[in-house]
Each structure stands twice: as structure tokens, then as C-alpha cells.
Amino acid sequence: MTSYMIEITDVSKRFKEATALNKVSIKFERGRIHGVIGRNGSGKTVLFKCICGFMQPSSGHVLVDGQPVQPTKAQEIGIIIEDPGFIGSFSGFKNLKLLASIRRQISDETIRETLVRVGLDPHSKKHVRKYSLGMRHRLGIAQAIMEKPKLLILDEPMNGLDKQGVLEIRELLKELNREGITILLSSHYAEDIEVLCDTVCEMDGGVLSVIR
Q1: Looking at the DSSP assignment, which residues form a beta bridge with residue 63?
Q2: Where are the alpha helices (H) located in 86-162, listed in sequence order?
Q3: What are 7-36's pLDDT values in tens digits?
Q4: Which ranges constitute the DSSP H helices of 146-201?
Q5: Cβ(187)–Cβ(158) under 8 Å?
Q6: Fewer Cβ atoms within 10 Å of its own Cβ: the N or the C terminal residue of the chain?
Q7: pTM of the full predicted structure?
């Protein structure tokens, strides 16, 4: 088993005349929390999509857990990239149950326990369309962690949360990391990066630089 959960080698991604990623090479160790900072449009989200197989690089390659990344393996990665697409007329529990039914690997009880972990009521009948932004984000985190992935990729996981919610989700991420989950996250909040991350990189114009 390699000591690296993610290995990125000379990855570039071009869209017509624009270069979103420019020869990015980096290795992220397993079992740690890694932060990526950068302005909107700097390439962070494109990088995350290439790591989880949602987008193919124009050149270079990505290994996750020692294997070439494939869209069919994306279910082994817990992912929040952009706003999760939930069914507005379903409750939080019903949304997660529908998603869990695809693989049939977790029970209703596990879904309920996961909702409790992120601070949501598993018995609530409230439709997701009536959720606040913070509640939707908590539900997205529940979706990402309910099948106990080896790798968790979170693009701005604190968006929409109040101060107490931010503190709770930080503690949850620390707990998940102690359980052995490798976490890669981006955040506009410097304190999230400082408190949570073992390593920090900055994306600027498609170029990734190591800060610490």
C-alpha cells in the first residue's frame, strides 16, 4: 500500500483557449487533512473534479489509492463539489435512502446515525426544498460520509453554516480523520485551513504551490 492517497503528475486541463490546470504535480499523504486555498476561478474545483474522476485531464494522470482514477470508482470517495442535487420534495432521510439504495451497502440505521452526526434530525419529515443553506450543506456532508469512504473531498464545506455550525463540522472532520479518512478540502475561511489542515497548497491561475 502506497503512503499516498492521491498522486497527481503533470496534470493539465484546457477548455478551448483557457488553461484551468497547468502541469500540476503533487502527492497527498493518506490519513491527513490537506487544504487547498485560492480565489474563485483559480482551478481548485477543476482539480477536485479530476481527482474524483468527474472530469478527465487534458494531459497527465491521477492515482487515487494507487490506482488510476475512474468514474466507476467515484463511490469510494466521499464528495461535495458544488451544490448537491437533492430531491426537494423528499426529506433528508428519504434522499439519503434513495442514494444508498444504488449500492445497497448500508442500512437505514446507518443513515439515521449519519444524519445525527452532522446535526440533522433523522426523523424529520421536512422537505429538503424548505431547508436552509446550512441544513442542505449538512445533508451534503452526510451523503459524502454515510458509506464510510477512504477519501473525502470537500469544496467549501463550511458555506452557509453559522458560527456554531462551523465549529460542529470542524469537530466532525477531525473525528473522521482520526478514524482514518483522508480529507482534501478547500475553504475561503483562513481559520478553517489553520485549524484543520496538516498541509496547505495554493492554487493561482491553474498553478498549484505548496505553502506548508
Answers
A1: 7, 68
A2: 92-100, 108-117, 133-145
A3: 999 999 999 888 999 999 999 999 999 999
A4: 163-178, 190-196
A5: yes
A6: N
A7: 0.89
* C-alpha cell at position 109: 440505521
Torsion of CA 16, 18, 20, 25, to 10 degrees: 90
The 10s digit of each residue's pLDDT in 147-165 is 889 999 998 888 778 888 8
C-alpha distances in angstroms, 65 versus 24, 28, 127, 182, 191?
A: 18, 10, 37, 10, 29
| Cell of residue 212, nine digits | 506548508
The cell numbers describing 131, all together, are: 431547508
What integer is the mean pLDDT of 39-43?
86
Asked whether the beta carbons of 60 and 23 are under 8 A apart, the reply is yes
Are 201 and 14 a contacting pair, CB within 8 Å? no
CA–CA separation, 170 vs 165, rounded Å? 9
Query: Do residues 81 and 36 make contact, with C-beta atoms less than 8 angstroms apart?
Result: no
Please give the Cα distance from 122 to 192 (Å, whole number): 27
CA–CA gap between residue 38 and residue 203 (Å, rounded): 5
Name residues whose C-beta falls within 8 Å of residue 114's C-beta, 6 or more positions apart in sequence. 96, 142, 145, 146
